[in-house]
C-alpha cells in the first residue's frame, strides 16, 4: 500500500473484455486497430481465441488495462464462449453493416450475455466496416434503436480506417465500475502484500 | 517426440563405416524407377469382376457410373490383351509401401495392389479416359516444367501447383475440399463433379470387392485414395511419388481435419444422413488452414516427405538448461511443453515419461499455430482447442501458444479452463530464460545455419538426414528451388523400403535422357540411403561417381551421429 501511494504514477485498474460476433465481421481487426493501430486486409480468421492486453488512460489518475479475449466467430467454438465471457467486465458484440445476418447473430449473443454473463457486464453493440457505406445493409438508426432498447452502448466504426475504434474502449472504460474494482484489488493487495514480488512488469520482460 | 523401439541393435560409428552397401545394387536410373520390380512370388490378384478393362470407345458417363456403382465400369481402350500378359504391371505391388516407420502405432500399410492403366490412345484424343482424367485434374497451363534449363541451385519459381492436387469427399460423393478450389460453393463444385464421380465409383466398386486398391496410375498421373469412411481422401500427383508417400500426405491431411472436428464428430455428422455436407462444420479458418497445409505439402515440405520434425542445433548444455527451465516451472496442468522456432523447428520438448507426441500431431499443431501466427502481433497469446488424433482422436487438448518473435512457447493441457494458469507458467518460463541469459543463445542458434562446409563432405550440395530414433531431421538450408524439390521427391521414392538397408543412386544427366532433359547446366546426382537407424538423402552437382558419393554419405552419417546430441532434441524433459 505505502509503496503504491508514494508513486506519482496513475493507478492501474484491470478489466476483462470479450469480443463476440459472427465470423468475418472484423473482431480481430478491431482489436488489432485498438492494440497495435494496424490493419491487415488479408487477416487469417481466428481459430480458438486470442488473448491481448492494452492500456488506456481514463483520466490522469487512473489507467485502465484491458485484458481482451478475441474469440473465433465460428459456430464450432460456441461452446467455449461462456468460458470467455463468464468473468468479463465488458463485451463488444460486433456485426458487419454490410451483412444483415450478422446483426441477427449479434442479437443472439446479446441475449446470451444478458442471461449468462455477470449482471453488471457492460455491453457495446458495434457495427464494423462503416467504410463500405455503398454496401450497407444494416440501417444505422435501426441498430442504434436496438441498442437503446437493450441498454447497450452503440458505435459504428471502421477498423480499416480506424474511425471510432478508440471511442469504443474509451466509452466502455467510462462505464466500468472503476472505484469498486480498485477497492477490490486493494483489498487483495492488502491481504497478500508480502507475497507480492517486487518486479512483475510483464510487458517489459516479454518483448526484448 | 516419439521414440520408437527400433534399436534392437546398435551401430557404433566404427561399425557404420563398414556397413555394407550392396555392391550389386543396380544403378537405378530414372527409367528403372518408373517400372515396379517384378515380384518373385505370385500375387493374389483381387477379383476383377466388377471392373472391365478395355471395351467401348465412348465417353464415360459419370451420371451412369454414379447411378450404378456396382455394375460394370468400362474404361475405354485400356489394357489391351498384351498388357494383361504383363500381370505385374496391372496388379503390381507398389514399390514402396512397407516399413515407413518401425514404430508400432503407425499404421503399417501392407503391400497394395495398384491399378495401372495403360493406354494406346493418341495423346491428342480429347475423349480418351487418360486425357480426360488429366484434363480434369490439371489446369490448362499445367506443362510439367521439370527439366527446365536452370541449374538446381538457381532461384526459380518455388511453386509446384499444377502437378498435384488433393481432394476430400464424403462416402456419398459430396466434395468437401479441393486444393485450388477455394471456398467450395456449389458453383465451384461443378468443376470437379466429373472427377468426383470417377473417384467415388472406383472406390465404391473396389470397396465392395473387398480389395484394397489404393492407387490408380494413368499415364504420368498417380491417383492415390485413402478410405477413412465416411471420409475419402484423394491425392492426384504427377510428381512420380510413391503410393506410400502420398498415403502419408493424405494421413497428415486427414489428421488436420480431425484436429478441428475430432473423429466422433465426423462419424456423428454422417450418422443417419450419408449425404451430410461436412462443410457446414468447417468455417473459413478451417478451410484456410487446410489450404495452407495442402499448399505446404504440394510446394514440398521435407518434414512431411520424410515423416520427421526439423530440429535446431544447440549445445548439449544449452539443451539441458532448456529442459530444466521447462520442467522447473511446469504446473500440474501442463501435459506437453514445446519450444519451437517460427519455421516449425523444434528446440525443446517437455513431456510425461509415458506419453510421446506423434510426428503427425506435431506437424498438425505447428501448421495450425503458425498459420495463425502470420496475423499475430507481439505479446498476443493463443488458446486453441485441438484434437491431436494420434494422441486421442476422440478428445480435445488445449494449447496455449505465445510468440516471442524468434521462437514460440507452446504449452498443452487437457483442461479448457486453465488458460490463465498456463499463461502464468509460460511467463515464469520466459522470465527464467531471461534471467539465465538463454534468450540470446537461443536466438543465435536459430539464426545460425548448418553449413555443408562444417561436415567432412564438401562436395555435397544439399542433404536431408533423418534420425529415426528421434524422428527428427536436419538439412543445411531451406529447400526452395523447385528443381531441388523434385530431385528429393524422386530420390525419396526411388529407395526400396522392403529391405532393412537400401541404397538408391540417381543421376540426372545434362544431356537429354529418355525423352526428358534434366538441365543443361550440369549433371546432378543423388544418393538415398535408408537403414533402421537413419535415412540420408543427398544431392550433388559436383561429383558423379557412385563410390565418391557413398564416401560422402558415410562422412555425413558419421558426422550426424557423432553430433547427435547437438543436432536433435534428445530425451527432452520428461516428468
Automatic annotation (TrEMBL), chain A:
Q: Which family does it belong to?
A: Belongs to the small GTPase superfamily. Rab family.
The record's InterPro entries line, in alphabetical order, gives: P-loop_NTPase (IPR027417), Small_GTP-bd (IPR005225), Small_GTPase (IPR001806)
| Gene Ontology CC terms | endosome; plasma membrane
Name the chain's protein.
Answer: Uncharacterized protein
- What keywords are annotated for this sequence in UniProt? Cell membrane, GTP-binding, Lipoprotein, Membrane, Nucleotide-binding, Prenylation, Protein transport, Transport
Query: Does this entry carry the keyword Transmembrane helix?
Result: no
GO process terms (BP): protein transport; vesicle organization; vesicle-mediated transport
Name a GO molecular-function annotation.
Answer: GTPase activity
Q: Which SMART domains match?
A: RAB, RAN, RAS, RHO
UniProt-annotated location(s): Cell membrane
* Topology term for the membrane: Lipid-anchor
> Has UniProt tagged this entry with the keyword ATP-binding?
no
Please give the chief subcellular localization of this protein: membrane
UniProtKB/TrEMBL annotation, chain B:
The region called Disordered is annotated at 1-51
Pfam families in the record, alphabetically?
Fuz_longin_1 (PF19036), Fuz_longin_2 (PF19037), Fuz_longin_3 (PF19038)
Please give, as recorded in its UniProt entry, the membrane topology of this protein: Peripheral membrane protein
Main location as per UniProt: membrane
Q: What is one Gene Ontology biological process annotated in the Swiss-Prot or TrEMBL record?
A: vesicle-mediated transport
Q: Where is the composition biased (Polar residues)?
A: 7-27
Name the keywords, alphabetized: Autophagy, Endosome, Membrane, Protein transport, Transport, Vacuole
Per the record, what is one GO cellular component? Answer: fungal-type vacuole membrane
Question: Where in the numbering of this chain does the FUZ/MON1/HPS1 first Longin domain appear?
Answer: 164-284
Has UniProt tagged this entry with the keyword Transport? yes
Q: Which residues form the FUZ/MON1/HPS1 second Longin domain?
A: 333-429
All copies of domain FUZ/MON1/HPS1 third Longin, residue ranges? 460-564
Cellular compartment(s): Endosome, Multivesicular body membrane; Prevacuolar compartment membrane; Vacuole membrane
Q: State the source organism's domain of life.
A: Eukaryota
Tell me its family: Belongs to the MON1/SAND family.
- Provide the function of this protein: Required for multiple vacuole delivery pathways including the cytoplasm to vacuole transport (Cvt), autophagy, pexophagy and endocytosis.
Protein's recorded name: Vacuolar fusion protein MON1
Amino acid at each position: 500500500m505505502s509503496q503504491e501511494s508514494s508513486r506519482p504514477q496513475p493507478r492501474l485498474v484491470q478489466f476483462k473484455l470479450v469480443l463476440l460476433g459472427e465470423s468475418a465481421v472484423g473482431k480481430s481487426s478491431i482489436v488489432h486497430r485498438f492494440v497495435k493501430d494496424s490493419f491487415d486486409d488479408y487477416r487469417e480468421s481466428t481459430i480458438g481465441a486470442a488473448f491481448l492486453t492494452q492500456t488506456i488512460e481514463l483520466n490522469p489518475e487512473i489507467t485502465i488495462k484491458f485484458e481482451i479475449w478475441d474469440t473465433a466467430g465460428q459456430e464450432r467454438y460456441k461452446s467455449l464462449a461462456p468460458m470467455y465471457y463468464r468473468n468479463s467486465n465488458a463485451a463488444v458484440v460486433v456485426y458487419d453493416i454490410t451483412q444483415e445476418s450478422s446483426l441477427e447473430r449479434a442479437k443472439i449473443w446479446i441475449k446470451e450475455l444478458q442471461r449468462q454473463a455477470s449482471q453488471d457486464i457492460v455491453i457495446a453493440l458495434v457495427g464494423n466496416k462503416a467504410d463500405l457505406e455503398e454496401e450497407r445493409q444494416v440501417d444505422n438508426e435501426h441498430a442504434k434503436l436496438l441498442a437503446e432498447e437493450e441498454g447497450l452502448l452503440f458505435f459504428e466504426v471502421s477498423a480499416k480506417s480506424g474511425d471510432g475504434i478508440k471511442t469504443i474502449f474509451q466509452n466502455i472504460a467510462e462505464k466500468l465500475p472503476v472505484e469498486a474494482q480498485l477497492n477490490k484489488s486493494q483489498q487483495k493487495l492488502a491481504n497478500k502484500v508480502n507475497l507480492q514480488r517486487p518486479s512483475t512488469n510483464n510487458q517489459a520482460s516479454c518483448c526484448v | 517426440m516419439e521414440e520408437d523401439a527400433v534399436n534392437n541393435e546398435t551401430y557404433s560409428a566404427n561399425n557404420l563405416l563398414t556397413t555394407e552397401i550392396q555392391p550389386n545394387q543396380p544403378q537405378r536410373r530414372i527409367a528403372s524407377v518408373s517400372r515396379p520390380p517384378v515380384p518373385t512370388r505370385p500375387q493374389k490378384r483381387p477379383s476383377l469382376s466388377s471392373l472391365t478393362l478395355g471395351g467401348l470407345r465412348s465417353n464415360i458417363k459419370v451420371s451412369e457410373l454414379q447411378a450404378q456403382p456396382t455394375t460394370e465400369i468400362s474404361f475405354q481402350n485400356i489394357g489391351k490383351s498384351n498388357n494383361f500378359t504383363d500381370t505385374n504391371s496391372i496388379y503390381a505391388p507398389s514399390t514402396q509401401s512397407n516399413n515407413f516407420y518401425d514404430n508400432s502405432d503407425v499404421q503399417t500399410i501392407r503391400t497394395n495392389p495398384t491399378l495401372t492403366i495403360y493406354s494406346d490412345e493418341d495423346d491428342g484424343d480429347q475423349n480418351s479416359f487418360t486425357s480426360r482424367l488429366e484434363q480434369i485434374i490439371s489446369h490448362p497451363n499445367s506443362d510439367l516444367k521439370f527439366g527446365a534449363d536452370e541449374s538446381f541451385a538457381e532461384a526459380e519459381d518455388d511453386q509446384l501447383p499444377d502437378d498435384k492436387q488433393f481432394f476430400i469427399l464424403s462416402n456419398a460423393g459430396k466434395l468437401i475440399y479441393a486444393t485450388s478450389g477455394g471456398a467450395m460453393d456449389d458453383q465451384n463444385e461443378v468443376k470437379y463433379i466429373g472427377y468426383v464421380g470417377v473417384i467415388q465409383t472406383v472406390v465404391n466398386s473396389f470397396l465392395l470387392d473387398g480389395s484394397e486398391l489404393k492407387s490408380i496410375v494413368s499415364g504420368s498421373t498417380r491417383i492415390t485414395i485413402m478410405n477413412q469412411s465416411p471420409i475419402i481422401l484423394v491425392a492426384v500427383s504427377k510428381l512420380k511419388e510413391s503410393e506410400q508417400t502420398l498415403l502419408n500426405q493424405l494421413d497428415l491431411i486427414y489428421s488436420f481435419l480431425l484436429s478441428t472436428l475430432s473423429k466422433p464428430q465426423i462419424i456423428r455428422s454422417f450418422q443417419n444422413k450419408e449425404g451430410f455436407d461436412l462443410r457446414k462444420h468447417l468455417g473459413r479458418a478451417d478451410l484456410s488452414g487446410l489450404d495452407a497445409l495442402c499448399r505446404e505439402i504440394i510446394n514440398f515440405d521435407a518434414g512431411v516427405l520424410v515423416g520427421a520434425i526439423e530440429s535446431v542445433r544447440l549445445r548439449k548444455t544449452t539443451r539441458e538448461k532448456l529442459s530444466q527451465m521447462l520442467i522447473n516451472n511446469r504446473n500440474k496442468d501442463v501435459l506437453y511443453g514445446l519450444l519451437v522456432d517460427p519455421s516449425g523447428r523444434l528446440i525443446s520438448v517437455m513431456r510425461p515419461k509415458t506419453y510421446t507426441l506423434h510426428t503427425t500431431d506435431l506437424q498438425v499443431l505447428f501448421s495450425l499455430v503458425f498459420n495463425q501466427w502470420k496475423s499475430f502481433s507481439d505479446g498476443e497469446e493463443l488458446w486453441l482447442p485441438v484434437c491431436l488424433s494420434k494422441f486421442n482422436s476422440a478428445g480435445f487438448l488445449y494449447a496455449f501458444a505465445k510468440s516471442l518473435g524468434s521462437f514460440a512457447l507452446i504449452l498443452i493441457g487437457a483442461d479448457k479452463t486453465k488458460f490463465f494458469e498456463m499463461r502464468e507458467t509460460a511467463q515464469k518460463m520466459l522470465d527464467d530464460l531471461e534471467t539465465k541469459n538463454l534468450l540470446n543463445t537461443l536466438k543465435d542458434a536459430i539464426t545460425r545455419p548448418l553449413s555443408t562446409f562444417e561436415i567432412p563432405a564438401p562436395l555435397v550440395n544439399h542433404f536431408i538426414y533423418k534420425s529415426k530414433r528421434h524422428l527428427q531431421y536436419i538439412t543445411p538450408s531451406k529447400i526452395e528451388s523447385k528443381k531441388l524439390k523434385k530431385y528429393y521427391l524422386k530420390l525419396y521414392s526411388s529407395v526400396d523400403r522392403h529391405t532393412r538397408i537400401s541404397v538408391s543412386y540417381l543421376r540426372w544427366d545434362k544431356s537429354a535422357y529418355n525423352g526428358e532433359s534434366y538441365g543443361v547446366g550440369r549433371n546432378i546426382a543423388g544418393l538415398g540411403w535408408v537403414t533402421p537407424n537413419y535415412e540420408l538423402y543427398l544431392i550433388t552437382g559436383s561429383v558423379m561417381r557412385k563410390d565418391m558419393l557413398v564416401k560422402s554419405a558415410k562422412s555425413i552419417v558419421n558426422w550426424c551421429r557423432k553430433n547427435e546430441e547437438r543436432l536433435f532434441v534428445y530425451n527432452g524433459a520428461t516428468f
